[in-house]
Amino acid sequence: MRLFCLPYAGGSATIYRPWAAALPDTVEVIGVELPGRGTRRNDAPAVDLRTAAASLASEVERLSDIPFVLFGHSMGGLLAYELALRLREMPTSLVVSACPSPHQLTGRPQRHRLPDADLLAEIALLDGTPQAVLNGRDMMALTLGTIRADLAMFETYEATAPRRLPCDIAALCGQSDRSVGESDVAGWAAYTTAQFSTGQFAGGHFFIKASQSSVIAYLACHLTPPAAA
Q1: Domain 2-107+158-224, what fold?
Q2: Is 74 a catalytic residue?
Q3: Among residues 58, 64, 74, 93, which one is catalytic?
Q4: pLDDT of 64-118, one tens digit each?
C-alpha cells in the first residue's frame, strides 16, 4: 500500500518524513513536493489549485500499480480531492484533514491579500509554526511568498457541483481548531458514493503534529489493502 501525502500551505514533503518510520513496513509513505519549496524550491509556486492537481496526476498514476491512499492536510486536502478527480485509478481512500468541504469555502477570509505583518499574525494563530521561525526574518522572507501563493490557490478556489468519488472518504479535524470544525469537514459526505467517516483528535488546526501518534494509528486502519481486509 502507498500513502501519498500532500502538504498544507507553505509545507513541504519533509513534514511527513516521521510517518514512514511510524507506519507498518507494508506502507510506503510518499510525500508529494509542490513547486516553490524543498527539492523544488527554485520552481515558481503554483497559482491555480486545479492546475497544480493536474500536474501531479501523471506522477501518482505512475506509482498506482498497487493500492494507494491520498492524504492531504488543510489546503492539501482540497488538492488531494482535485487530484483524485483526475486519476484513472482510484485510491482506496481519500483522507482530508482540517479541510472544509469545497462548497463550504465560499465567503472565507482572503488571508493571501493581507500585508506581511497581518499575514504572519494569522499564521501564528494556527499554532503550526514555531515562534522562533516566525521571528526569524530571513527564514520567513524565504517562505512567506510560498505561503501566500498557496493560500491564494486555496482561497480563490471556486467550487462546482459536488463530483462524487467512488472511494471512501475520511474527514479529520482537531477538537480545538478555531478555523475548521466538525461541521466543516462533515460536508465531505456529499463527495463520495462509498463510505464516509469522520475523526476528531486533540489539538488545533495542526493536530497532525499535536496528536501525531493517534493520527498515525487511525491511518493504519485505513491502509489495509482491500485483498487483505
Answers
A1: Rossmann fold (3.40.50)
A2: yes
A3: 74
A4: 999 999 999 999 999 999 999 999 999 999 999 999 999 988 767 777 777 877 7
